[in-house]
Design brief:
Length: 102
Amino acid sequence: MRPPKTPPPYRPSLNFRLLADRALRRAVFIRDDFTCRWCGWIPPEDKISEFLEDDRFTPLCWYSRRHLHVDHVVPRCRGGQLREIGNLQTLCDSCNSGKGGR
């Protein structure tokens, strides 16, 4: 008889780990002028205005389905700080998904 499988260790979701809090996220977007640091993509002005009015939403372009994300410059797995604004950058979906843990 095989021993029962042990459950994998608990790992919080990626969004939970990457997004510090609303104020810090907002500060990173404003510092980076709502522009992807890698490719230079900027969401439409009306989506930026919506975000500035209510920061629960991510700046988004409905036509291309691209979002802006706050991501770490130095990943946490390599010793990067979680809530250090100097270690955070604005990236779009395609740049963030292609980055991985680099």
